[in-house]
Amino acid sequence: MEEVKSWFSFKVKKNDAKLRLDHIVTNNNKDLSRSYASLIIKNKNVLVNGENKKSGYRVKEGDCISGVIPYKEPLYFLPEKIDFDILFEDSDILVVNKPAGLVVHPAPGNWTGTLVNGLLYISADNCKNYNKDIRPGIVHRLDKDTSGVLVTAKNEQALNNLLLQFKQRIVKKTYLTYVYGSFQEDKGVIDFPIGRDPKNRKRMSIHSKKKKLLKPYGL
């Protein structure tokens, strides 16, 4: 019997009706890839109204979807010398400046050359701990093309502490971006709900089906 990592249960909302089963399972489990969602559906770990369905099943409003997510077999990654600056380090945490173009953790299409591979290279003493998970010590992330500061944990106690701080929003994050074009005002607010892009789940979009679009304010 597979060891269970977590379980989920939810009802399909009107805006999500007609989505594929693997799509909506992924949308409701943000750390779950589409391919792994399809796998657990195929392995009968997901039920729709108490019955097994295929990944391509089109869900209906009111469908009750429940399931369990088994632990994956541990993956192991090789240390690699990756170019990034260390801003701070002690026995518990490592703070790095992630450059643009660097992927944070291994994933399909980027199994090597990631920040995780670099962490393994510079933290040889912690390799055993880092290798326990595909995202060793990672408590938050930045997109590949976004540069910025990342805090990583070097032990389980630091990991749990940092996760709690991010969950309770104790950590404050500031983002800077470039914009182009002609604006009538020097400052303003762009107010749109952001959700999973309905056409590409790897991207975020204001066209998410989960929330009704709001009228923008400001710029």
Describe this structure in words.
The chain is an alpha+beta fold. It has three domains: 67 residues, RNA-binding S4 domain (Structural Genomics Hypothetical 15.5 Kd Protein In mrcA-pckA Intergenic Region, Chain A, Roll), CATH 3.10.290; 83 residues, Pseudouridine synthase, CATH 3.30.2350.10; 42 residues, no CATH class. It is built from five helices and eight strands; from the N terminus they run E-H-H-E-E-E-E-H-H-E-H-E-E. The strands form three sheets. The chain has a three-stranded antiparallel beta sheet with strand order 1-3-2. Helix 1 packs across helix 2. The relative contact order is 0.12.
SSE order and pairing:
Elements: E1 4-11, H1 21-27, H2 34-42, E2 46-48, E3 64-70, E4 85-89, E5 93-98, H3 115-122, H4 127-130, E6 148-153, H5 156-167, E7 195-196, E8 204-205
Antiparallel strand pairs: 1-3, 2-3, 4-5, 5-6, 7-8
Features:
219 residues, alpha+beta, Structural Genomics Hypothetical 15.5 Kd Protein In mrcA-pckA Intergenic Region, Chain A, Pseudouridine synthase, 3 domains, three-stranded antiparallel beta sheet, 5 helices, 8 strands, globular
